[in-house]
Amino acid sequence: MQTRSWFARLGRLVVRRRWRIIAAWTLLLPVAGIFAAQLPSRLAFGGFEVPGSQSAAVERDLAERFPRQVPESAVIVVRHPRLTVEKPAFAAEVDGIAARLRAVPGVAAVVSWRMTRSPSFVSPDRHTTYLVAGLTGGQNESMTTAPKVVVAASSAVTPGFEVATGGAAAMWERFDKIGKVDLERAERVSLPISLLALLLAFGGLIAAGLPIMLALAALVVGMGGLYFLAGVTDLNIFATNTASIIGIGVGIDYALFIVTRFREELRRGHPSAEAVPRTMASAGRAIALSGATVIVALAGMFLVDIQAMRSMAVGAMLAVALVVLAALTLLPAVLAVIGPRVDHLRLPWLRTMRPRREGFWHWWAMAVMRRPWAFLLASLVILVVLSAPVAAMRLGQTGAGSMPRGEEPRVALERLAASFGAGVVGPIEIIVDTPGGATASANLGRIRRLTELLRADTAVAQVTSLGSIPPNALADGMARLDPALRPMMAGLANWDRGADLARVTVISRDRPESRTAEDLVGRVRDRYLPAAGLAGHARVGGTTALDLDITAQLFRRLPLIVVAVLALSFLLLACAFRSLLLPLKAVAMNLLSVGAALGVLVALFQWGWGERLLGFTSEQQPGAAHPAVSVLCALRPVHGLRGVPPQPDAGGVSAQWVQRAGRRSRLGGDRSHHHRGRAGHGDGVRGVRGWSARLVQGDRLRPGRGGAHRRHHRPDRPRAGRHEAHGRLELVAAEGAGPLVAGGPAGAGRTLSARTGVRAEPCLTAAGVTKGRVILLDDPDPRGQSVGRDASGRP
How far apart are the first and last CA of the chain? Predict the structure, then answer.
């Protein structure tokens, strides 16, 4: 370990200022908690528009150029099992609902069968009808208005009538609430499970509670920080979800890494004041690098031009940054205060569950090392098989049909689908440029051709356009139109702006998020508009078109995101480890694991495997955002951080690698001399047929032929063989050198072979080579002097 490294100096600073750091966090937590409690009021519901897309252009035209029309709406379904819509009681109920809806702030207009007398608002059995409430503003404002619409529609309902509110705004608003409740429930369940796992790992309440403490502290401060960020930029409500999930997981992971290493340093006899800097120089450096790679990966979401995705990235990045900050300041300060008491409050019945020196994982590691190629091929086969479903992935957006049964948006969807066509809750909107007026013969002719093509499509349930109006009724526009037709025509063109835009509304027979509706939008854009002479003069929007535009944006950007994230992570790891192999290995492992994860995602949510077991309703497609978020969360090439010691440390990690090298020598038997052996990517002992020594001090290589490194020892460098000589020993080929033997009380007379390395006992803290003999250095004696033993076991 480099005691002069930046992280070691940070550890010493934390030890000196531990009470100030704890006091600062103690003051920060309640203040951040106050602002975190107010965060929901600042979060947005929308942000899923795709700038520059056709769906965004349609939404903008409806909001800005159709003064009395709105892009978002709520659909209220009214049904009575016995009465028909002509009955006075039914008509009075519809009128009462319409009146209550008009009184809701944010509702621009209400359209119903009572206003239009259009048969399209009445079911074939005449027991069901629906009202459409136009909601002002964009996605944000409409989702804020939606719950008020639900309350107004369902209040004061006459007994016998069944009222349900659906539509995109109501569905997404309800989705957000369900997601928030489910996330809170998941946290209530997962935190006790995590604590139980930590208890099994540590055996004591204090050590097990520290990771939970760190994760929660960082999460509270992160939510407080999001409150201020929401004041300067739009943040979607899903930002809190991603921040909670990623922040808690990463926080427990990093704290577990720090606490484990700190306890190891204490067991080696180091006092707390020394154990903290040593922990920071190794584990602290590793988690800082890991956190940097996570933030780099999440930053890839900024390449997607969707505000909601970017806000999720902001939330997660802030959570990870604060977890790293807490892990490098708060947690070491607490460890410096409690010191050896970290192992107090042990649970007696867990003492027998403490892992033995050579337990299951040691056995598993040895089994893998005996047959590395067999395990490599087996793992590759498993990952490739799990990745196979990715080839059949079909991305899309979620819908009301995937909500739990009994939820009002789903009930409304099911009733509309049975009587009118499920597309009522999310119609396809087509805006047509009509220079010279919508009723001009050329413009009207193109609209009529488009209407005929749409009505001939079997996926279309209903089309409303100027092509539905008798030609003679349109001769003078709205001025002399039959009053009975005026409500129907009011939204078909922007009459008060010169009628330079016309509107065509299409209702599909299937749900807006279905494959049928998506294919219909594709046909409209690619075939029907050109066939009607409207190529380049019309735009297709609505719920289904927005879903397709979001999916297309993610698909276009996902390869760039993957390449950018992997490239940046590769450079970061290469600079940190000064290696090309480790970053390449990490990239390959991440690609395989991400592919397997996405394959399982397809099998579960697209193919519907495990619906009954897991208790969900398959959407027959993963959400378009799921793969992007999964990839960005998983493309964190940090596998090497767990397997490679961050700092060569004779008294810590490197000594463990030397011990593992010694244990590994017992696996090879007589076969070991046929090839070279390496332990831990070179951070242990490398054995060859002939020997000389090189002692690596920190990041520099000091050659030593025999005892030369002692004769040329520099004052600023600790002497090899002293407890402070933190480095790693590499045994390399020396021409003409003969075999060496391992010394020590338990290893006297054992000959080193090419694969053996050094047979190190638990007391090993450093090693040196002098005049052809291997000297193993025991722990320092009480006077602080290291004692070396030669091949015969003599001091």
Answer: 26
